[in-house]
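A common beginner's mistake is to predict each chain separately and then try to dock the pieces by hand. The better habit, illustrated here, is to supply every component at once so that their relative placement is modeled jointly.
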Amino acid sequence: MRSFIILPILVFGMILQSAVLGRFSLLAGKADILLLILISWNINKDDKAYFLWATFAGALYALYSATLVFLPFLLYILISGITRKIKSMTYHLPIFLLILSTMVGSVVFYGLTMAQAWVFSGFQINLSEMFWQIMIPSMFLNIVLILPVNSIVKEFARFTVIDPEMK
Amino acid sequence: MKNKTNDLVIITVIFALIVGLMAVALSGAFGGASTTFNTGLVSAQSWISTRFVVLQEFFTIPRDVISLRQRNALLENEVSRLQGQVLSLEKSLAEADILAALVRYSRTNPENSYSAASVIGLDPSPFLRYIIIDKGSDQGILKGMPVITDQGLIGRVDAVINGAARVQLITDSGSAVNVRLEKADQDVILSGSPNGELSLGMLSQEKPLEVGDIVLTSGIGGGFPADIIVGQVINTKKTDSDLFQSASVQPVVDFRNLKLVMVITDFRAIDITPLIQEVP
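With all components supplied together, the output reads:
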């Protein structure tokens, strides 16, 4: 039940993303706070309902963005699953795990978004430009922001763990 | 009676003695003794005074430091509050300037009705160029309405909810605006791109294209009213092997710093999609 604390965190993250962080860009890249919150949450908490939080994050993203509605749902569920897989496959080295998960998550997120724009939208898109001006700067911003985001999410994840002595 | 007489005599003698001593002192007869006395007195006074001041400082200064610190904290709070007030006033002033510019624009273009709106968010995707404004269907905003600033065109309303609307900027890769080059007098299509750059395409090779030419909406297609300024041609690209020439456009609006915009509320975009025949 305490895990539901992630929902207001995601809502706050989305507001922060749209109102504040969206105004700070590196070249044409932007950080994605929802992605970082989901990665941090999945690293710090072994939560079987991860797909539920990813779906909620996807709904929030779809509400704000003009992107295809199904895309954020798909991407956030996929990235949450990948993060959990990476966590299970690597030694418990928090920083390494965070950075690796963020890099993989960013590549999947922006890569598939680019592919969707290229295949479905039919716009004339310069893939090299998109890669160097959007994907790489966005990934860099995500890596920079994952540490502060993780330190906050970690505290909330700890809060959700019920102390056995208190039972 | 006898006692009273004795007292009077004593007082008179003492008075005479004091007056006599003063007269002798004033004549300078006590010079050496007076100096020695004064020096001793001053030394003693200094010694006592110095120690008293030290003691006084010992007991009073810590209290002063505490009170000064408290006062300093109060003043710092006051300074912070005033700085916040200054920032708030500067923000209000900046908004008032923008509003004044918007009002000037609407007065000089009275043919349209406008609704001013604040930009409250941006699309979270770095691949898309959309903004979110704080006016929606409750304020009469409809899908397709053009959105401008006092400087020029920024886009059109893409989606509306009751209290907010999403606006597709002309820099979005999915945006295509029919524009007219003022000097070249040619109608072309202005397209956005994922990195926010504007370009002109489908320009005939024969038509002259100059750097600095002003780009205005043409009104063709019914998506935007005519003659809204969009930008200026900054460079052209023309090769013999290409069918068309192309050009980059510098928008007049600073899209990174959008705060207040105006929606043209009496313009109804015309959907001409059913009229467009698909090429077999």
